[in-house]
Each structure stands twice: as C-alpha cells, then as structure tokens.
Amino acid sequence: MGTRGALGQVIVLILLAAFGGVVGTATLLDTSVEDGISPGIHPAPLSLRHSQAAASGEPQAITNTAVIAVPGYQPMSRTAAITITQAPDQLDLSPSYKVVSPQEANYGERVTYTVVIQDDTDPQSHTALLANPTGCQELLQVGGFEGNSDTVFAHWHAGEPFAFKHQSRYIYEGSMSMRLHASMGDYPDCPAYHPYLWQAVTIPDGITMATTMVIQGQQLVAGSLAPCSNPESSEADDVLYLQMRDSGGNNLGTPQEIANGGAPTEQWKAFELDVTDEADLYMHSHPGEEVQIYFYATHDEDFNDTWFYLDGLECQMCTESPIRLTDTVPDGLSYVSGTLTATIGTVTDSAAPTLRWSGVLSPTPSVTVTYAATVSTTRSQIITNTAVIAAPGYQPISRTALLCSNSYRAFLPRVLRTRSCDQ
Ligand SMILES: [Ca+2]
Ligand SMILES: [Ca+2]
Ligand SMILES: [Ca+2]
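^ thats the input. predicted complex w/ calcium ion below
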C-alpha cells in the first residue's frame, strides 16, 4: 500500500503477516531526507502472534496499525489489513507404519517392535495449527492492577510493608500499575527492602499433557525516588525476578530474571517467560491445585536503588490435542518391562501388556516408538501385533506387524512358511 503522507513524502508501509509468533517486518520506504530519516528502506522487525481462536476454515480479518513518529512532525499512522484463515485441522497419518525385528523368533527369544507415527500434513497447515493450540486459558486475575486496592489485593499478595505500591505514576494500560522497591526505605533508619508480589492460580482440571504455561507482561525500570536513595540512582545490582512456587510457597525450578536496574529507561518493555518446565511436573501430579506466580526484587543494600514497575500481566496455559497410540502386546508374546521408549511425547507401560504413547506431532512431524518383547509361546504361528493410532476428530487407524514364531516347528515346505511370514 502506498500513501502520500503528512510528512510530504511517499511512505509505503508493508506489513508481512506471520503465524505463530514468527517475526514479520514492517518496512518504511522513504523518499525524502527532510525529516531526518535517510531515504531508503527502514525495516522495523516486529513479532506477530496470531492468538485469536478462529473457527477452523473461517477467515478472520486482522487490522495492524503502525505509528510513525518523526521529531518535529505530528505522528502519523498507517494501517494494513490482513485476513488469516485458520487452516482446517488436517492430519495425514497414512505414512505411519509398524515393523518387528527380527521377523522370525523362537520361544524365549527377544524381538523389537517399532511404530513410526508420521504426519504428512502440509507445512502451512502445520504452522497454523501450531499458532492455535486448543484450549488456552488466562489464569491471572486483575493482571492490569485496575480497580481499587481492595479489588487488586483480593488476588495479589505483596510485601514487605512499604516495599511496594499500587500506583499510577507509570502505567502501561488502564490507570494503575504496581511498583516494587529494590531500595532502602525512609529516614532515619533507611531499612533495606525485599519487595515481592504474588498471586496463586489454580491449575485447571483435565490438564493432561502437551501443556504450555507462559507468563508475560510489561515492565519498566526507573530510579528510586525514596529519600534515602541517591538521587537518580539505579544499578544492575538490583534485579527483578519471577519464581514459580508450589501452593506451600516452595520453589519450583529456579528464578528467571525479568529486568535489572542497569538501564533505567522509564519505558515499558514487554517480557515473556516460559514456565512450563518449572510447573510441569507439579501440574501433572497436582491437578486442580494451585501454583504461585511470585515476583520479587533484590538489591545489594547500598544507596543506588531501583524501582521496578509491572503492568499488563498474563498467565496463559495452553493445551494441545495429543495424538494417542495404543499397542496391546498379544498372546504368545511377553512385553519386556521398561523397554517402551519414544523420541518425543510421553509413554506409559503401567497397564502392560497395553502400552500407550501420546504427544503432539508439531513441530516435529514424526515420532518413533519402540519396545521389546520375548516369544512366550512354543507354538509355531504367525503372531499379529496391531497398534491403533487415534487423533481427536479423526477415524483411528491401525498398523500391524507379523512375527513368525518357532518356525523350526513348522513342518511345512519352506516356500509356504516363507509366504505366510512375509505376507
Ligand atoms: Ca494497568
Ligand atoms: Ca551496588
Ligand atoms: Ca543497589
């Protein structure tokens, strides 16, 4: 799109849409030097995340506006409209197969089964599927700190006394945000503060697997205005962290740094932290219970002090629909305990001889599942071993491997036995 802009030059703004948080590009084509921007193309990288949950196959219009600000001129905006069509949920698992090695074995001998589940869905559909995991939920309450203190602190716990403030000096959205004081307190004692801010969120029931948990928001770093602090100070010694904790306040994993006082820009900056690993084990063993999203700031108790501001906090938990494999080891074979493995996803053999795998085939489009069995029959027979692959909304498919057991007992002409085992 091209427009003659208020700055007197032709400005062309190109917005390339991208799925799933892939970085797109906004480009300025500027033909004038009068505004202080040299002529040419000025790429401005930006990240676009298609997070709306459009129905499958339904076009969805998205308008994206860029604001161009040049010193001495009125800011101007240019808009690009794109339409994203959520790809139909297509899975093509037809290349999946199952094999056994060796294909002939006698009583007591060990064989290895391999099931490869392969998705041949075209990559474009795959990307769109990735961008719209099923079942995302926002877990935080009043993440923008709007409302009066009673509303905010009905959900948030903050401390220690005087080390935080629900305030409006800096706001990213709405009229309020939260401040944590990595600083000394007031005269005459100038106590060292240890500020914290946390909210407990409940893990939804039914969370099984392929779950992601991401905490994002806006942070701003500024020098402390406390009377004990050195004026305009702030320093990298002062650090704002996020720590996941269990419902009893015990740490889950290690803290992640959000910001430090080394660059007191007084500008809001977005942050995004993946806490899936920290929360994952706990979530699976404690469905329906709480975890604490715990922010805290440290400082080195000198008088170069930093105040951290937080706003627009979100905690998104997303669950993708897994694909499931069920493989029951048939009579005549005995599963070798502990041999079930998979290259991705989760396996369980607790219900052996029924073996299970589940996981998501994105971005990796295939998984290899293997296990070992020993021949437990003394009969000469063809043992048919079938795996069933199921995905939500699809007809299950099955894949079979044939094993010829105790073939030396088959007093049949070899040509017949061979034909039977190779069919
Ligand atoms: Ca706010
Ligand atoms: Ca210091
Ligand atoms: Ca300090």
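DSSP finds four helices and 28 strands in the chain.
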